[in-house]
Fold:
Amino acid sequence: MKSIGRRKLHSRGLLSARLSTLLSALLPTVLFATLLSSTAFAWQGGAATATKPPNTITPASTLTEAERKATGRIKLETIREITTKLSSKEFEGRGTGQPGADKAAAYIADLFKKFGLKPAGDNGTYFQQIKFRSAEILPETSIKVGDVQLKHREDYVVLPPYNSETVDLSGGLVFVGYGVVSTDLKRDDLAGLDLKGKIVLMLGGAPDGVDAAAWKTATSPQVRIRNFIERGAAALIIANAATPQQPFATVANYLSRRRVSLASTPLPAIKAPPVFLVSDGAMEKMFAGGQSTYAQTLVKAKAGENVSQDLNKATTVALRFKISETTSANVVGVLEGSDAKLKEEAVVYSAHYDAYGIDGSGQIFPGAADNALGTATIAAIAEAFGKTSPRPKRSIIFLAVTGEEYGLLGAESWVKQPTWPLEKVAADINYDGIGTEVYGPVKRVVGFGAEHSQLGATFEEVAVAIGTQVAPDPMPEENAFVRSDHYAFVKAGVPALMLMGAPEGDVAVWIKRARQWLDTDYHSPNDTVKPDWNWNGPLKVAELGLVVGIRVADTEAMPSWLPTSRFNKPRAGK
Structure:
């Protein structure tokens, strides 16, 4: 799941726009740990959303006989089997544009066919092929400062984008402190320094006691980048960018991975100087032999002293990348609706099947909780719908997307070139998360986006009917609603929900487990199916989504946005 804690990273004052954008999409948020907090679930009576006052939710709400039968057709075994299969070594982490993803797409398509879905991709197939651009750093990449050879990932990491397979440059090393030029702050860290053709070394963060507003203005990415480019800097190295919560090793782990973008995305017209992050250890190596150590210099910088200096060390940079174009596919199946007219409209269930794939060393990122589990959930819902009679009035589309981990690329592609008329998509119900529902039987649910559309009222009523408590978004300031595949639909005017469950029982136990998962498993080789997973949890969340979909599919009018929602716009702009 592309769901990140942005504020922690931005508070460090990092330099470039591409860096802040990238980091905001790389490191895990505390959102899901907070989801399990007692504060988030202290209220027991329904979601405090804009859909309607909580006291209008009737505890006596029940499922219809047809809905009970439909939920009974969802198989726990299906969710467990598909999750386990997709996260096995056989699929090599399902990396976008890698063979493992192709194999996973074929497997999902076979499931859709088995469950009675018709192809709803391109040219009568289950697949919507998407062209991607893949880029990865090669082992030949090197940086040498004086006589010291820095080590990739241990000492430094190169920031994307990678637009050329070969970059060679050399120059002296100049340390510019925080790199700030500001009359308001009465500060010029670049005074007296010749940066033309030089490798610029800069601190992230801020001195102690500085005026926060003035510092924010002076350190905007546009201002500092312009200052360096106008002075002819050949490259930029940023130090002091890590935090105790997000150490350099974690940052380097993400940034050294293969990068994927849409092949249709134009490359930057102007090539900016290469940008690197370095560890504290690398900084000590670069300051070795000077008047002071890096640690001593950092103390002075934090105290507000001007520490800029020419380090007088020849630096050579040789960057080598493998850049190629590849393809990966969204998998799309449809269950035709039963109503002669309403079957032209559809409810979409979405989940991303991609994870981080396999790296150059053969390390696999299985992506079990994120998001083989979500993919298995919509597949189990598809299986249940395929056995339901009569079928819902509207058609039901099942969309397993690729490229989510790199920026919701598969979902964005489907929405921009939909295989079903977008103005006739009633709603999107999305499954993505970190697996909080497998911690135990689910009794608490969040419907991200419930406050924005009429889907919220339907979600709340169904949640009560199946015996769960509705919880509000525990951290609305984290904007989780805009960080998974459903958001592509939202931007196109289609109301959407992302469903997530949490277990009953001692809240403190689950908080601890979620935090540990974020530290050890999130986007890592450790995201595997665990022996103690309780599969009744995802079964319950699947039942909830199934019934929400049935009610949306059978209601005469498609759900609309609430007038108060900032997303209120017509579908497909019509």
In short: Confidence is low (pLDDT under 50) at residues 3-60. The chain has two domains: 6-132+324-573, 136-323. The two ends are 30 Å apart (CA to CA).
